[in-house]
What we know:
With 281 residues, the chain is α+β, with helices and mostly antiparallel strands. It has two domains: 11-162, dinb family like domain (Four Helix Bundle (Hemerythrin (Met), subunit A)); 177-276, 2-Layer Sandwich (Nonspecific Lipid-transfer Protein, Chain A). Helices cover 49% and strands 14% of the residues. It contains twelve helices and seven strands. The strands form two sheets. It has a five-stranded mixed beta sheet with strand order 5-4-3-6-7. The protein has a two-stranded antiparallel ribbon with strand order 1-2. The two termini are 25 Å apart. This is Mycothiol-dependent maleylpyruvate isomerase metal-binding domain-containing protein. Residues 20-158 form the Mycothiol-dependent maleylpyruvate isomerase metal-binding domain.
Amino acid sequence: MVARSLTQLDKPDVLAxxxxxxxxxxxxxxxxxQDGWHAPTPLPGWNVQAVVAHIIGTESFLQGIAPPQxxxxxxxxxxxxxxxxxxxxxxxxxxxxxxxxxxxxRYRAVTQAxxxxxxxxxxxxxxxxxxxxxxxxxxxxxxxxxxxxxxxHEQDIREALARPSSDGELAGPxxxxxxxxxxxxxxxxxGKLAQAPDGARVEFDLTGPLARRIRVSVDGRxxxxxxxxxxxxxxxxxxxxxxxxRLAGGRPMCPARPQDVELGGxxxxxxxxxxxxxxxx
Length: 281
């Protein structure tokens, strides 16, 4: 079997996006009253404080810090479905009794440590193969996945606080890199999860501030393509770009943006893809 080539990504571009989303989260959380930290998010079992604890935990893990020992068997919790979820919950429970101010201080400390470590990485380290949530790939790809994760959680927190992203805020680098990461999985969604037939040409037409077209061609295997070589798509899916990211992340749609999903061409295939858009573990 031919080994999959590693994703090569520009380090300054990816780090600019990652640091930008960390800054956005900091601004969102600064001065938040304690009841805001306790606001429920769209994620089962997690309030705002739990989401931030999860981010702290992941960045701590990447710094080589072991998760704290939980006070219960976290695998027994209904919303914990795998080992990653169990590790997340260790941090969530550890930090649940702290004040929002204390959690924010922890968040700032670990993200500052990560900024320093990432900025000092050599190109060889950045491009080296490493385990990621998407399988073995470059460390740079892992950091783009970190942007996606943090950016999705920024949107979760915004929904919890009824402070949705403005069009201008959605136009930033973290949003675009998050959408790049989602787009990279659409071959898997169309071919593996939705079982689109051979010969299918699927076009996602995203509207709003995150407007772009994502095309997947199924020719033996489903893969992302720039165009269909002059042919028309066999199935089309048109919706707001932010709502696309919410569905891809297994979240409910954002109430602040248009929720229409328009299907064209082979509507059965298109509907099956929409139903299986969630690829997040």
